[in-house]
Amino acid sequence: MVQTTRGVAHRRPNILLVTTDDQGNQAGCYGDPIARTPNLDRFARQGVRFSRAYVTSATCSPSRSSMLTGLFPHQNGQIGLSHLGYTMRDGVDTLPAVLGEAGYRTGILGKLHVEPVDAFPFPFNRTDLVLETRHPNLVARQFNTFLSQTSDRPFFFMCNLFDPHPPYAMEPATGLPDPLFGPEDVRTFPWLGIETPEVLEEIAAVYNLTTRADSCFGALLAVLEERGLANDTLVIYIGDNGPNFAKAKTTNYEAGVHVPLVVRWPTGLPRRAVHHGFVSAVDLVPTICDATGVAWPSELPGDSLLPVARGESLPWRRFLCTEHHAHGPDHWFPRRSIRGVRYKLIENLLPNRWNPVPWLGSEREVLRDPQAPERSKFNTFLRPPAIELYDLARDPHEWNNLADDPAFESPRNFLKRALDDWRTRTDDPFMDAAFLEEVTASHDAAREAARQASG
Questions:
Q1: Residue 413: CB atoms within 10 Å
Q2: How far is the C-alpha of 246 from the C-alpha of 70, rounded, in Å?
Q3: 161 CB contacts (<8 Å, ≥6 apart)?
Q4: Are 342 and 398 in contact (CB under 8 A)?
Q5: How far apart are CA 252 and CA 389, in angstroms?
Q6: What is the pLDDT of residues 180-236, one digit of tens each?
Q7: Which residues is 294 bridged to in the sheet?
Q8: d(CA 302, CA 4)
């Protein structure tokens, strides 16, 4: 039975959790000089921006499962995409279930993309409107409909905006920048390093749809203002993983797991604050519990962000860990990562295999061409060794693997021990070599079946 925390005297706040799909740090308030995100930028000035915020996994379902359970994917079981057969294990506590039991009215707009769906009781459920979340007017209308049914009970509303996820549709709708970005207005991402016309066309589309997502976010904020709910609502904005390009989505590289996270709670948090410590998506559940006074039924690996957001001096995590397993059954490629302030280590659990993710962005044509001049830079990405080590101070875009350099043996060994400790503390089942071999064999069989079916 969920009980409210003793001593909570304030009115329980409403919670608005907003996610964007495939948005890394392409935002003005994160220093991107091209991105047009006026609503998020203004929102950041009104609240707290976390400069080192990370998702647990750079793929949709695992990432979102952590936001809604407070657990890493290897803990809750959602290690791949839900529509491709992956699901959480039984009995995992979820935000809508726990908050609903505590008296909150819960609602969702856009994709849930975590299984089993019955673990997420949203009485107001518009998960049928996935692509429609690209339209600011529809987003505002659905939020208003939900609020009209909440009466005087506090609410938890999750709005999952589809942009800037492909397909990069530019159908007529409000919210797109005017004029639109074209290839001539953008440059390649420094962590990608490929600048073909096709790549620039796609990057321009990402910026256009990021602006449209920002317009949808602005529409949600406008509804709160119009209804007089802004002061009593904790609003959380977070991306679910980085963009749909090599070295970003489906990886453990910074471009895939480092995302925007901004929160605003006028009666509970300062304005114009920036926190530079490592924060993770597993911190969202403890933060919401702290704000609402709702006790979570089980132990969690994360911590509430409210104290550090208020500037309180207290011990905080020294390292940030992420993971990846699969996108689909034929994309099995498990790995773990840990980073400190300067160095980052990635452990590939199946080293020296070819990266099986065949789809990326339009840069895939370059990666498939051994004669392309840019291709040699991606050798580590395409066939990773057991350990990768990067000096993020000198190599922030992770091009130069230092793992075999004797001069960096100390940070390598130090981070490897810290990663092993994290995996042990969080009961990572893939530390068991026999279990890893068993799951790998089943995925290899699925991959071979898919290859044969495709001819």
A1: 11
A2: 28
A3: 18, 19, 20, 21, 110, 133, 134, 139, 213, 216, 217
A4: no
A5: 12
A6: 999 999 999 999 999 999 999 999 999 999 999 999 999 999 999 999 999 999 999
A7: 4
A8: 19
